[in-house]
From TrEMBL:
It holds the Pfam family PRAI. This is N-(5'-phosphoribosyl)anthranilate isomerase. It comes from the Bacteria. CDD domains: PRAI. It comes from Deinococcus petrolearius. Residues 3-194 form the N-(5'phosphoribosyl) anthranilate isomerase (PRAI) domain. Transmembrane segments: none annotated. The lineage of its organism: Bacteria, Thermotogati, Deinococcota, Deinococci, Deinococcales. InterPro entries: Aldolase_TIM, PRAI_dom, RibuloseP-bd_barrel, TrpF_fam. Keywords: Amino-acid biosynthesis, Aromatic amino acid biosynthesis, Isomerase, Tryptophan biosynthesis. SUPFAM superfamilies: Ribulose-phoshate binding barrel (SSF51366). Pathway: Amino-acid biosynthesis; L-tryptophan biosynthesis; L-tryptophan from chorismate: step 3/5. Belongs to the TrpF family. The keyword Amino-acid biosynthesis applies. It catalyses: N-(5-phospho-beta-D-ribosyl)anthranilate = 1-(2-carboxyphenylamino)-1-deoxy-D-ribulose 5-phosphate. The gene is trpF.
Amino acid sequence: MKVKVCGTTSVADAVLAAQAGADALGFIFAPVSRRLVTAQVAREAGIAAGPTVARVGVFLNQGLDEVLRTAEAARVSAVQVHGSLPGLYVRQLAAYYPVLRVVRPDELTQAAAEWRDHPGVTLMLDAPEPGGGVPLDWAALRADFPAGAWLAGGLGAGNVAQAIGALNPAGVDAVSRLEHLPGRKDPEAVRTFVGAARVAAGTGYPQ
Ligand SMILES: O=C(O)c1ccccc1NCC(=O)[C@H](O)[C@H](O)COP(=O)(O)O
């Protein structure tokens, strides 16, 4: 199971997450976000994190050209797309990058059917407000949660084990509960989140 730490806005926070054992860092390029980062900072932070850590560019309802230009400038290794987006847009993006397609609970069933056979597109289930820190009702989603999908929405050290136990996601992602302030990581929260996720997924390192 993969662990992604989202909303990275500095080299120091990238190094922190990498040293905590994160598999992936999220860099948010959606102008509405309080965690907005420039492509240049994302690029430097990605280099500082090292080659084994995936670098995910995060976008919300942005045009294909803008996404591709920003992703290239930031040297990300994957893109995560939120919002109301046609299937064709996602397919075109997947020709360039592995795609995390974010969906809300009410979109999950249709999206699972649509993307089941596309190897370049992975679903991520998130709360309706991205970066809002609100957990989903995991028990209610158990029947519909597709194998291979990722989970986000209000995850932190205190609840990630319960979420993994309920849905067995292929990856988990968080931001709000890992911060002092929007865009500023809380080192202890990052370390305990990654550690708790690893232990719950059975990939914890012996103490
Ligand atoms: O976090 C944001 O500010 C944001 C804004 C616009 C689009 C996406 C955004 N975040 C994407 C993420 O991957 C978050 O980690 C995910 O939504 C979970 O957030 P949280 O519930 O705060 O853990």
